[in-house]
Amino acid sequence: MIPRYSRPEMAAIWAPENKFRIWFLIEAHACDAQAKLGVIPADAAKAVWERGDKPYTAERIARIDDIEAVTKHDVIAFTTELAEHVGAEARFVHQGMTSSDVLDTCLAVQMTQAADLLLKDMDALLAALKTRALEHKYTVCMGRSHGIHAEPVTMGLKFAGFHAEMQRNRERLLRARESIATCAISGAVGTFANIDPFVEEYVAEQLGLQPEPLSTQVIPRDRHAEYFATLGVIASSVERAATEIRHLQRTEVREAEEFFSKGQKGSSAMPHKRNPVLTENLTGLARLVRMAVIPAMENVALWHERDISHSSVERMIGPDATVTLDFALARLTNVIANLVLYPEAIERNLNQMGGLVFSQRVLLALTQAGVSREDSYRLVQRNAMKVWGGEGDLLSMLTGDEEVTARIPLDTLKELFDLGYHTKNVDAIFKRVFGADHAA
Amino acid sequence: MIPRYSRPEMAAIWAPENKFRIWFLIEAHACDAQAKLGVIPADAAKAVWERGDKPYTAERIARIDDIEAVTKHDVIAFTTELAEHVGAEARFVHQGMTSSDVLDTCLAVQMTQAADLLLKDMDALLAALKTRALEHKYTVCMGRSHGIHAEPVTMGLKFAGFHAEMQRNRERLLRARESIATCAISGAVGTFANIDPFVEEYVAEQLGLQPEPLSTQVIPRDRHAEYFATLGVIASSVERAATEIRHLQRTEVREAEEFFSKGQKGSSAMPHKRNPVLTENLTGLARLVRMAVIPAMENVALWHERDISHSSVERMIGPDATVTLDFALARLTNVIANLVLYPEAIERNLNQMGGLVFSQRVLLALTQAGVSREDSYRLVQRNAMKVWGGEGDLLSMLTGDEEVTARIPLDTLKELFDLGYHTKNVDAIFKRVFGADHAA
Amino acid sequence: MIPRYSRPEMAAIWAPENKFRIWFLIEAHACDAQAKLGVIPADAAKAVWERGDKPYTAERIARIDDIEAVTKHDVIAFTTELAEHVGAEARFVHQGMTSSDVLDTCLAVQMTQAADLLLKDMDALLAALKTRALEHKYTVCMGRSHGIHAEPVTMGLKFAGFHAEMQRNRERLLRARESIATCAISGAVGTFANIDPFVEEYVAEQLGLQPEPLSTQVIPRDRHAEYFATLGVIASSVERAATEIRHLQRTEVREAEEFFSKGQKGSSAMPHKRNPVLTENLTGLARLVRMAVIPAMENVALWHERDISHSSVERMIGPDATVTLDFALARLTNVIANLVLYPEAIERNLNQMGGLVFSQRVLLALTQAGVSREDSYRLVQRNAMKVWGGEGDLLSMLTGDEEVTARIPLDTLKELFDLGYHTKNVDAIFKRVFGADHAA
Amino acid sequence: MIPRYSRPEMAAIWAPENKFRIWFLIEAHACDAQAKLGVIPADAAKAVWERGDKPYTAERIARIDDIEAVTKHDVIAFTTELAEHVGAEARFVHQGMTSSDVLDTCLAVQMTQAADLLLKDMDALLAALKTRALEHKYTVCMGRSHGIHAEPVTMGLKFAGFHAEMQRNRERLLRARESIATCAISGAVGTFANIDPFVEEYVAEQLGLQPEPLSTQVIPRDRHAEYFATLGVIASSVERAATEIRHLQRTEVREAEEFFSKGQKGSSAMPHKRNPVLTENLTGLARLVRMAVIPAMENVALWHERDISHSSVERMIGPDATVTLDFALARLTNVIANLVLYPEAIERNLNQMGGLVFSQRVLLALTQAGVSREDSYRLVQRNAMKVWGGEGDLLSMLTGDEEVTARIPLDTLKELFDLGYHTKNVDAIFKRVFGADHAA
Question: Which of A144, A320, C125, D71 matches a 20 to 30 Å C-alpha distance to A62?
Fold first, then answer.
């Protein structure tokens, strides 16, 4: 998590202020539950809220840090500092609980908050993608497989494809959020020996979580692994969109360009350059988000009821992966929303191959005219190779090939070279992606 | 995919016989759809089924390979061989389609089949885990955090925990299966320029798939990435259970042992050794399944409408990850079902620490008796340290500590050292995991 | 390791024939050493060689497999089968040794053999790269950063860069080979309790290995981790070269093309297409080689003196990573050696940007003429933006900018637009990469 | 890079102060070289040193940040700020150079500095390991394979093994340091079009680097990949040592314990617990260091002469991986140096298996007494199984087995149960690891 690739709202989720605030809420709600059970006095719970419910300022955080420096135990440091505010009743705080009850539930809350923010990011991205998709629904451009011109598509289809993919990612993240949103207050080995399961249920409900069905001091790490794996998939989709834009912006293609702000200098050496640095950066950020996946999976196999090897990993990847992905989604949204398209270049590229992109259609027409698939292929290929060699465009070549014109009348042949043929189902695809009323 | 770690049913999914069979089904159903649309003669579609619907024998596969050796194109080799059986009508096969329509839809079918088999594996594992969980619901054993004795749990809770985790994995895999089960027959760049979307819808329905909303010659690879990431999470859960058993079997613990068959020799050098080789092996297999995750994510960012860099990756990880996980799940099921538990060792370990494991309860009792948390901690700690130093068991030490007995009467003190205290909520946890009627 | 991406020589290293052959050599040499020490009769060692030194045929391998199916122990199966040939003296075989002595030393031999083959592959690749580098030393082409035209380079420099990188990789692999080439015959926990260190030293020398200074039943896995990490770096370099070619071949660039064999069909749908499928494939293969790295590192932390979790991992990644990289290096060599370059396209692209690529030089000239860096930048940028906008080429624009011509005389300005300026140090760079006499 | 796992010296390498200081040195040395070449006035170079050679204070850094916020270009921001100190002569700074010349060379310097610090860390760790190895050279303890008691080893051998491994890692890091220590000042595409190669050579020499033979605006990323892969191997070795200690500390084994400071509280719930939290933490830190490896390899395949996707990755993993490993090495050194060993527990465990660990030796003695390997195995196994079943120790069982005593006289049998037998080659192994004079 480095400032350059952080946004304040996500960074705040991982700040000590928020962490201690969540710890406080867990402890205070647990006191309420214990009071309801009669385990601790109702006045004690009340005192915790009345005297403890205040922001974690820099001073308070420093005080907690000082105590931890001595005790080397973070939760004891926290409750000790809390006791300095709450007073004698503080001895009822944390009763029957173990540190992990607080730490793990807090992490679940933070990861849920982070997921909510990422979902918001994705909504913004989806909106931008939809806008650009509708705007360029029929902006016909060259489709490419293997980097080689294939058949026409539309710019709108590209945006719509990213939209469909990000929509799937949104559902994945929703499920990962649901999976991580559990609360464990089950004691030192998860048996509720010293605490009634009601406390867990109560705190869970207050915090919008589900009780963890079976915890073992810790919430099982398969949940976290799913979460980070989902971030990895989302990041890979970000990389896909970024890669597309990088390709479209390269000098020889130049169908699109990242927005270039006034004051910005592209290169100290080559002032004319407008580099797709934002999408290149997104490519790198995707690698960074993905690198959390394997450690998160290695974290699953803790020893017996728990070991703490996962903790340092999560301290790092928790903030890093969510902050980086938040930044990446916002940056991609900005790039998409402001992407400059160059219609002339799009059209120039479309025509570059002399109509070779229509060869598949000619092939089909020949087959339908009764020519065997192999012969059709041969006929198209020999003309295509001439076009490839620079002898002219495909329509001219075919017109001059008697074996072709013997099967397909000239008029029919010309009709095959029609862009509308390639866009006739775009609306059907858009309906699949955006629903029937998307254009309304 | 090496024979040692393969099971025939999963290996068969990835064998050429099955692959070509699926290709045939895609092409033949597509012919039916094209016939319904009037694009090709109904007789042609009929001929494909009548003369082409037969098993892919070793001979046929060899023939396809021979053709591919010349054409260097697998689908053309396939359709050419098919034409040798179907005859002239074969020219209507594959009409308007592109190779990826066949390849990608086939891969989706194979991954769906593999998921179904893995789900079956997981059901068997879940059943074994439930059986052992119920059997040992109240087999009290030592719970450990950090590898250090903590408080009592039960062996049943361990199995139940793995069950709950594997149940979550089952849901993840169901969703990944749903996500991968799509059909793309949309042509060279996904625009349906040369083929009606009806064909895709028809074939999808026949094969139990959903039409891919927007394909770009290929099915988007975020779906595959989710799938392999899910396998990685499942494998990590396998590793967790395996690690637990490896720990329980180590000489000093020896609470459990993998089943040791009669003829088996543990070691050429040390005939007494019974090594947890199956679970050690599972630890390694987990690494192998996980290693597919990052390449699958790297596959997402294909260039433009597609490049073929993903293909070699999927040829390897498709079979490898599913075959390995299938083997691992079956092996783990076998290990769980036949795991030998040693009640005497379990009890011996339980008592090893002289009752230190009850210290948390004593701590709580002191707090509830009005001692401050810090003082309670100090009181328990000073007695615990004596036990740790070998001076006797905790109950004796506490009994001899007047500062303690001043707060807790002797009778109450003794009652704190009761295993039933630790198991009182086991049933509640089992209800969460297995439902209310699990013991019925 | 799938046939499609395997070459026979590398596959043979991992075949049972070779494995059992190495096992035999280890055992037989160990017998010699034991005989020299007087631990076993000299006749016994002689008998092992005389009656046991024969190829491992399919029949022998099947026999070993049958025995292993019963004993579930591979080395016992091996020695049992060997005894069937050697007779009574076979009881002296494997004396004082443990299975890992054989298995780990064998793996070291196989990994050394694989490294030797990969080094040979790299030599072939280096030769091809050097040939193409010298051939195109002065084929000036556009250099690109961020995919955007920058300043001229030469095609030879591209090849030379890959050469320099692969040369470094060669050195890395040599070191990894040296690191893995150790022999462990130290008994069950590495103490030489039952065997004299002389045996290890003797066998090591016979097999061209170093004795492992300290083994713990197994050779420490940091050696293997280094090896697979090195393969991962090499694969990444393969991907870099492949990515360059994919870019050069894309339709809009088309400066280079993979060799296209006569019978080959590029696409069933678009017969004109010549896709860079070999280099796309190499991109995927790089991912496959890299995926071995993390599991190999996870293998390092074995429990105590050893656990067997590494074994399944190595059974898979040992063959897979080396076979795949062998195939990839050979494929890349073939692609490089036969790469078709298109001089006209190279020149067309070079001139595409209207001379903007000379802007850096103009910038420098202005600075040297006493203009401040910021003003120089501004002057060049305003003209560059006009060129970018399509108003003409840079030289014309500058010529028409009086603020520029006031500082740089027209003649000097023209001289700045000279390709020779960019190639003047190519020879110096070639000398660094290929040595002073490379052109001789 | 989070404070909890950072040490100041390594963190300082990655701080802006150090980065800008290195940038300054590169630019200033380059000015000297350009002055020597006559490209810029000697006075200009002198002015840069005289007026620019001062620390980068917080104020200066803030100023640079402010400028970058406008220009969105870090190196321009840097040179602009520098010009505010140097004055008019600043226009000669950065002449003929491109940003990457500064950035990449700076990164090389930082990675070299980081390597030097890590080498120092490793030296401290090696010293601690050697001390403990010599101290416990003959502290006989149980050796374990598969977590199961095997044959005796010594604690010293464990430390010596980690020493040998870390020594290999030291050599790997030395080579990685050498590999990364290159300087590139070659201009926008690496052709030295605008700058004489002498500048690169001169600056390289001043900074203790080698000139990069062939750069393409950037230093090739295979160097960085090797570097991070090496860190990954080292981290894995750290994990291995940490895992050993975690095992030795678990309650049932308890042969060793991390040092437990006075004020430290092990657990809020179980005051008796002394958890191996430092080594558990090291296990997690190893995962964090390893996660840099794959992104570093993905960084290799930059597009054409460079793209900037690697940059964000390196901004993160550069500091993170080195800071984390520095912290981990120091923590491991501390753990090793202060590790508490418990001789009584070591001995108790040694005897736990009733002498079964001597079975291999008995097996050998039987073979040498003329019994076939299979019969010997059977004889030992049947007695071993009785011991395993709790009927007594192995020596008693064998003494009572007439088939055994018929072959081995009682006296000889007893002599087989001698620990000295297992330690007789420890000195030879120590000589291999520490050299002949290690004990002097």
Answer: A320
For B433, the token pair is: 């995991």
Q: Domain span at residue B372?
A: 356-416
Q: pTM of the entire structure?
A: 0.96
Domain identity same for B344 and B400: no
Please give, rounded to a whole number of angstroms, the shortest distance from the CA of D191 to a CA of chain A: 14
Do C266 and C129 sit in the same domain of this protein? yes
C191 vs D94, D151, D194: nearest CB: D151
Which residues in B291-440 belong to E strands, given as ranges?
A: 340-341
For A298, the closest chain C residue by CA position comes to: C298
The verdict on whether D267 is a catalytic residue reads yes
What's the confidence (pLDDT) of residue C31? 98
CATH number at residue B42: 1.10.275.10
- Based on the domain organization, do C118 and C171 belong to the same domain? yes
pLDDT tens column, B425-435: 999 999 999 99
Compute the distance between CA of residue B424 and CA of residue B438 in angstroms, rounded to an integer: 17
The stretches of C136-221 forming alpha helices (DSSP H) are 155-180, 197-207
DSSP-assigned states of every residue in A268-312: SS-TT----HHHHHHHHHHHHHHTTHHHHHHTS--STTB-SHHHH
pLDDT at B72: 80
Q: Are C132 and C217 contained in the same domain?
A: yes
- ipTM for the assembly: 0.94
CA distance B145 to chain D (A): 8
Kindly report, residue by residue over A130-139, the tens digit of the pLDDT: 999 999 999 9
Q: What is the DSSP letter of C356?
A: G
User: Which of C314, C329, C351 lies at the terminal end of a domain, its last residue?
Assistant: C351
Residue A424 lies in a domain: no
Whether residue D15 sits in one domain with residue D85: yes
Contacts of D363 in chain B (CB under 8 A): 269, 271
| Chain B contact set for C269 (CB, 8 A) | 97-99, 187-188, 194
The arithmetic mean of pLDDT across residues B95-117, rounded, is 96
Are C163 and C309 in a shared domain? yes
Distances (CA, A) of A28 to A191, B259, C14: 22, 49, 63
Regarding whether C380 and C286 lie in a shared domain, the answer is no
Separation of alpha carbons B188 and A111, rounded Å: 41
The secondary structure element, H or E, covering residue C182 is strand C182-183
Residue D198 in any domain: the answer is no
Determine the distance in angstroms separating the CA of A417 from the nearest CA of chain B, rounded to an integer: 12
Q: Which amino acid is at B407?
A: R
- The answer to whether residue A8 is domain-embedded is yes
- Cβ-defined contact of B147 to D294 (cutoff 8 Å): no
Q: What is the DSSP string of D40-108?
A: S-HHHHHHHHHHH-S---HHHHHHHHHHHHHH--HHHHHHHHHHHHH-GGGGGTTTT--HHHHHHHHHH
Catalytic annotation, residues of B: 146, 267
Residues from chain D contacting residue A71 (CB–CB below 8 Å): 263-265
Element (H, E) at A163: helix A155-180
**Same domain assignment for residues C146 and C225:** yes
